[in-house]
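Worked example

This section walks through a single chain of length 115. The input is the sequence exactly as stored; nothing has been trimmed or padded.
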Amino acid sequence: MRVVAYSVDPDLKEPFAIANRKRNEITLIANSLRPRTAPYVEGKDAVSGDMIAACLLNQLAERGAKYITTYSADRSHIDELAMVQCNIRFANVSHDSLLGLLQSELPRAIALEND
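Given that input, the structure is written out below as tokens.
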């Protein structure tokens, strides 16, 4: 799977790579997803980010995105109806699910949360 991950904290680059286990092609971007950074989605199957505005969903779908994941406290910032209308599947890793974990435990926790 080809993935673009936005708003990637430098401390999470290594856990992302380990959780990925080289099974996918991941592009890591420090900037958040905005209209000017949306072109990086072109040809990718999935998008990961902290906040994904509803106004971008059509653009993401038109560029080929089929899956979206976020890492946030809740799902209230996601317009799930718009996702369904754009035929995009959605998953969220909650902050609470990772509280108290050591840095070395993050890759496995993130991978398990998204299984």
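What to look for: Residues 13-20 form the longest helix (8 residues).
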